[in-house]
């Protein structure tokens, strides 16, 4: 893990598992095989890992990724991809590739649920948008942990997904969660945490490991 390589002692907790939707994956592959869109946007590493068929690579489609980790997976598959400096929906919407008459047909490859800012804004701007939901997240009865831990050693919590954060409150002691400082990657997640009663919340606009590590070293060490 990048955090540990940077000297930050970290415990990973996975309260959800990923269930892939093979029907949606096949439909998307068929779409590219018949008529490729002007732009394809991939919003997560899980979705990116399923983009392996040659059908995706025989077109002039411009590929965009919400973050560097997602982009790295696409590049390994042979896709030329652009990542916004601000790695979220707002950053994607600010890219010139999504502004203009040459960008009319857009495919968004994502997971089930999550924000609707990206497709809603694009449709409101007159673009034709298709969404393919490659996977969904399912709660685990017992979360997967990278190591055993106790609350006294936890000095901060990093949450890059609103769904993940919600599941932590389902599984663990709410008071203990609310007493720790949190670092998130969007104001949307921060608002959910405030609604749960968390008092100390910071937002890092960039969800990359490098940005999160830099923030932690500047503020929590």
Q: What does this entry look like structurally?
A:
- With 221 residues, the protein is of the alpha/beta class.
- The chain folds into 2 domains: 18-137, 3-Layer(aba) Sandwich (Rossmann fold); 150-219, Rossmann fold (3-Layer(aba) Sandwich).
- The protein has 10 helices and 9 strands.
- It has helices at 2-5, 22-34, 45-48, 68-76, 89-93, 117-124, 162-171, 174-179, 187-196, 209-219, and strands at residues 13-20, 39-42, 62-65, 81-82, 105-111, 128-145, 157-159, 182-184, 201-203.
- The strands form 2 sheets. Strands 1-6-5-2-3-4 form a 6-stranded mixed β-sheet, with helices on both faces. It has a 3-stranded parallel β-sheet with strand order 7-8-9, with helices on one face.
- α6 (117-124) links the parallel β5 (105-111) and β6 (128-145).
- α7 packs parallel to α9 (187-196).
- The longest helix has 13 residues, at 22-34.
- The two termini are 18 Å apart.
- The mean pLDDT is 91.
Unreliable stretches covering 5 or more consecutive residues: none
Q: Which class of the largest domain in CATH terms? A: Alpha Beta
Q: Summarize the amount of helix as a percent range.
A: 25-40%
| Level-2 CATH architecture of the largest domain | 3-Layer(aba) Sandwich
User: Got a strand count?
Assistant: 9
Biggest beta sheet summary:
6 strands, mixed
What does the radius of gyration come to? 18 Å
Integer tally of domains: 2
Shape: elongated
Structural class: alpha/beta
In the CATH hierarchy, the third-tier topology of the largest domain is known as: Rossmann fold
Beta-strand percentage?
15-25%
Terminal Cα separation, in Å? 18 Å
Average pLDDT over all residues: 91
The number of distinct helices, counting runs of at least 4 residues, comes to: 10
Trace the largest sheet across and list its strands: 1-6-5-2-3-4
**Series of H and E elements:** HEHEHEHEHEHEEHHEHEH
